[in-house]
Amino acid sequence: MKRLILSFCAVLMAEKTLSQTLEKMNWFNEPEKWEIKNNSLLMNVTPQSDYWRISHYGFTVDDAPFYYTTYGGEFEAKVKISGNYKTRFDQTGLMLRTDKENYIKAGIEFVDGKYNLSTVVTHGTSDWSVITLNTTPSAVWIKAVRRLDAVEIFYSFDDKNYTMMRNAYLQDNTPVMVGLMAACPDGNGFTAAFENFTVKHLPDQRRLKWLENNK
């Protein structure tokens, strides 16, 4: 019986692991050309595509490639991003999205010939914050930690030392589409790579507090 239980648990763990693979994810605005290879997603980013709502520019667009899975509760998502950025506003990164009016996208955005750590937070209308880099790293790691009604966004150049670049509101107790986004608002497309994408479940803090108070 013990051996049977262990075997059953092994199957469940295997299924859980498989459910996290890139092959099990879904496209929103699938690009014309993409492939999954060695736990990496490579894509030709769709020209003239972006995510933005209303503010400053006066238009709304929701048509860039987004490869996602759906999670509830609290979690940590992380990915290594790179691209052969060419044109103003070429961008790659993580995106967390509940619907067309509520999302966060964070990563690298190419502006005026420089790499910028970029975060767009949208709740009805979009805002944009940037940290301009004086170097052009070959790749950047982006990490998003969802806790209750907030998401903390971090960046790293070595996957060891992380620095926070934004703390933003996102409604809690709501399923979130989380995944890999790239956009090319002004140009004719570019190639983007996403490596070692992971999402790790985090225990709900309110539940842990309740358990602690009700031993």
Walk me through what this model shows.
It is built from 2 helices and 16 strands. The relative contact order is 0.23. It has a single domain (25-186), classed as Jelly Rolls. The protein is globular. The longest helix has 17 residues, at 2-18. With 215 residues, it is mainly beta. A 7-stranded antiparallel β-sheet has the order 1-6-15-8-9-10-11, with no helix packed on it. Strands 2-3-16-7-12-13-14 form a 7-stranded antiparallel β-sheet, with no helix packed on it. A two-stranded antiparallel ribbon has the order 4-5. 12% of the residues lie in helices and 53% in strands.
Number of domains: 1
Element-level helix/strand string: HEEEEEEEEEEEEEEEEH
Q: Architecture, CATH level 2?
A: Sandwich
Structure class:
mainly beta
Q: Taking strands numbered 1, 2, ... along the chain, how are they ordered across the largest sheet?
A: 1-6-15-8-9-10-11
Dominant shape? globular
Q: Total strand count, please?
A: 16
Biggest β-sheet description = 7 strands, antiparallel
Question: What is the count of DSSP helices, taking H or I runs of 4+ residues?
Answer: 2
What percentage of the residues does DSSP assign to strands (E)? over 45%
N- and C-termini, Cα separation: 31 Å
Name the poorly predicted regions.
1-19
The average pLDDT score comes to 91
Q: Portion of residues in helices?
A: 10-25%
Using the coordinates shown, work out and report the CATH topology: Jelly Rolls
